[in-house]
Design goal:
The complex is a heterodimer. Chain A is an alpha+beta fold. In chain A, about 30% of the residues lie in helices and about 25% in strands. In chain B, about 25% of the residues lie in helices and about 25% in strands. The chains are: A alpha+beta, B alpha+beta. Strand 9 of chain A pairs antiparallel with strand 11 of chain B, so a sheet runs across the interface.
Amino acid sequence: MRRELISPRAHWQSQAESYGFNFHTMYGEPYWDESRYYAFTLEQIERDLEDPTTELNQMCLEVVDKVMASEELLTRFAIPREHWEMIARSWRLRDPSLYARMDLAYDGNGPAKMLENNADTPTSLYESAFFQWLWLEDRLKDGTLAPGSDQYNSIQDKLIERFAELKKSWPPVPLHFACCQDTDEDRGTVQYLQDCAEEAGFDACFTFIEEIGLTPQGGFVDGQDRPIHAAFKLYPWEFMLREEFGQHLNKSQTRWLEPSWKSVLSNKALLPMLWKLFPNHPNLLPAYFADELHLAGESKLVEKPIYSREGANVRILEGGQAVADSDGPYGEEGIIYQAFHPLARFGEDYALIGSWLVGDEAAGISVREDSSLITQDLSRFVPHIILP
Amino acid sequence: MKRSRSVLSPRFKKQATAPTAAAVSVSLMLSGCSPAPKQETAQVYKTAEECILVNPDQEQLCRDVFGEAMALAEETAPRFNSLADCELEFGADQCMGGGEFAGSLADGDQYAESSGGGGWFMPMMYGYMMGSMLSGSSRKYRSAPLYSSKNARSPMYGKLVTGAGDTVGRANDRVVRTSPNNFTPKKATTVTQRGGFGKIARVKSTQARSSTKSSSRGWGG
């Protein structure tokens, strides 16, 4: 794994705009950064990232199974009691999932370490599945990359296949796509998924989360009063379960993507549970619940709220003192500790691997760079290749 | 082979403009879920008098069609359980009582929340569209009530919307092209509430903006 500095393509911004990639620059900072790329060997991809992702996913599913069977664990995961039955049913019926992104610390040597599993509402999908592929095609054509350079990225093919499977197994209902108002990035991600669903033959419609309505019969409808039979929502389960309409989720007939059992996976209480079930697994970092801190032998720990997004409210502790932190609005539902593991450093930047799953299949990676040890929403997306 | 086989499809090409929330909801409401069926042209009037001004020789027809639209509005306008919910959607002073509540709004009564289900609130008709079709050798006219919102945050703001929520044009359009389906009256649906999802996101994004350098408003991770 190495980083190469190159000149960006002259036309990348106009290309981005013609494909509706409207969040290539966010908050005045570049987000898509093609002044560099990461190069991996095929062995690094297959042995260190692809296979471990498949295995980690299976391990995570075993945790879900354990949690569903234990009131104590559901409580530790801060799943509201009134939703236990619905979530357990969703798991028992194996309601199908769509996708997930595991964040891995990896520097090209030794095993990748899982930092967390964004199993409910992962973003950076469009850049990973689509735009970095356009970049690869262009850079092969203009000779910047050696012939035979490849990319670990079958995300889009797998997404379309996955939607086609869902379409076959569901009644012929339109699929709604929903995200919050006023966020270009989420809107772009949801539009991309909608495009993929339409490629797979779904009849798709869009609604904003805030526009969703409830009929007197207890069914959800979109902003135009069309019933929502099935919906992909880029909106966290931990919010939905606690909001006003949350009490109607159980009775409503809506099929959700991701399914409600994902609230157990996209929850950082997953990390100490993994360590308990698979101690010393090479792809895991030691992790502890807040009341088990005495078990931690590590001098450097990362404190994470069990619910948090985009690296918010994370603190790095050394000998009990915070040496780095990030603010944010999370933490009230509890925290966990995870052994500190440095991110790969290239020049002045830290690189984080996002490893994608579609259904239960490993599907590709993204690389994000940040100048800080805590990767946040201002990190930059950098394309990658597999060396010929 | 580690990569996608067929990433490019015309579907992924987009307009060059950034999707602001408003632009997106307009285009999506116009396109709906499925490809638009055959379109037809309809005239938009606010009152019978407007129609007569344009068609001085059709006074009776104008009055009949307006009356029909008013009657349809009573039956098919979107219904709300509270005046506040209706005004949130359509703007201040744009709503009125229906059923048991009909006519009593003018005296400034405070309504209790609907309990028996005999009363509701609905937007006032903004105008109506009048279409015609050939039926055998004679021409038949038909109408549908239209609504518009004065609340800039509503997805219906500045648009002409049918009782079933389909956008047919902009608020000041005089002629619209619309699917014939939009003339088929649909039974009024009572929307109990909206906005039951999304509040935590709003609170968290306010907190995040006030406490950090990060200004993320996305809810992905």
